[in-house]
Amino acid sequence: MYSYQIVQPVIRTISLFVLMVSTRAVFAQTDTVNSRFILLKQKALGYKATVIDAKELQQYGYQIQNKGFFLEEDQHDYINSLKMIDSAMEIWTALKDTIRGANLLKYRGYLLGRLGRFAEAKADIDSAIYLFRKKEYEMGVMVSEFDLSKMYESQFKLDSALKYATLTFSYWKVKRDTSRIIVSVNQLINLYLKMKQFEAALDIQRESTQLLEKRDLHPLQLMDFYFLSIQLFKKANYLKKVRHYQQIFDEQEKHLKAENKMPELGYSVYK
What we know:
This protein is mainly alpha-helical. It is 71% helix and 0% strand. The model is unreliable at 1-33 (pLDDT under 50).
């Protein structure tokens, strides 16, 4: 396992309780919705929100951030996804919810990395890690380090990307969290392919095939694994394996389309 040091970042306006971003565009449905949203936010910021108010504001937060996730995952629209995430962060800020705020902060860093704004991305993810550590929320640190891996990949710093992907893989293996393991595995195979370390990629692919029997895997995680396996075995010239995984991929895709699930899956970041 790699050793590394997390340095407390300069938390740029991050007193997760100070971050304020405009959200008028978020609820454009009706003036009534806008007014209600603004009222709830102001009550929360002024410590005057009731339990019912807070729950209602939380629902706004979930709706907005889910829209942000959809824009990134389904359409790869990083700019508008970032706008939604900023708006949702404002809600968690108003509610003084450090964990949910930190979770979006590290996701914001991922989006900034995709947009090539690497210094801002690193600052946001480091800040999220700091907040997660402050709350002693180790899982939050790990998902943040995965986003660091993706950020460094976007920056073509593949050694650093591999370092953090390996850290997350090791952690989730100990936790036996299959759905998290496969995400880290996909990233590792992806990075090894880019680094032309095909033997290492083959090792991790073989080690992970038993995970495919688990029932708690998201279809997109499996599709990514099949797709990356196809690319790997092409490079290794294992044509029988290529045909095997291509058949599985095609059957899974056909099945998902028949169930009308493909639109929600969008397309893989690895393609």
